[in-house]
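DM from R.C. (forwarded with permission)

"hey, sorry to bug you on a friday — could you get me a structure for this? deadline for the figure draft is monday and I only need the backbone to look sensible"
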Amino acid sequence: MKKYRACAKVNIFLKITGKRGNYHEIFSRFMKLPHLCDELSFEQKNDSSLSKESAAKQTILSGFTLYGDFGCEVEQNTIYKAYQALLEQTQSQALAKLIETHSIRVVKNIPSFAGLGGGSSDAATFLKMCNTTLDLGLSLHELAKIGLHIGADVPFFIYDYNSANVSGIGEIVEKYEEGSLEIETLTPPIEVSTPMVYRCFRENFYKELSPEQYGRLSVMPSDEILKHYTVSEANDLFEPALQLYPELKNSYRKGWFFSGSGSTFFRVKEENNG
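My reply, with the result:
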């Protein structure tokens, strides 16, 4: 069966601009990492080629069968949530039949709880897989609206831009035209709780983003941002994450930046960096 790539992202900058219900409003530059991707595919449930290792990782819920190394229960898995949201939106019998007859296999390469958007990318890729496989006829905009109910980062991955300014609660995704950067990442084995980091930011580090800063960041190329901003200036969540998880200091290196709520650090790879 065809394999679909679900790529990671980093936040070149991340500013928290307010709160809307249970969601935080953000302003951020997302950049796709084409070298770091999960792989998703559909497999016939009666496929005798499934290995014992795969069978050991099988998770089944109400006919929904998922293979993959995940750190959560299937009810909390973004792919399962994407299936539920898509089925509710389309009422597609063909979709229900597809899930009845096929398993979803995921080869996980993107670390979880790391600020790289792996779960959101998996959900977005699953929505697009179903849309293409079943010819559901949904536009990217319609898929992004469905994806927003699953997670704030999902619309970015639906549109599949290399770089974009993302704002609101993730629903506003504006393509940013710039060349690709060769980015390397470092992810320590620390599972960061995004809700806890946001809460710590609100209680201890909240600051307003001025219109001047907003305007400057919206047009500045990513490589220039990484040259002229410090890790704390670029990402509002770095200091609260550090307060909650002081062991992050052991992995931080000067000149590296912080993605999302962590725990991943990144930088532009340069020739003299080896």
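R.C.: lifesaver. The chain has eleven helices and ten strands.
me: no worries. The CA atoms of residues 98 and 215 lie 46 Å apart.
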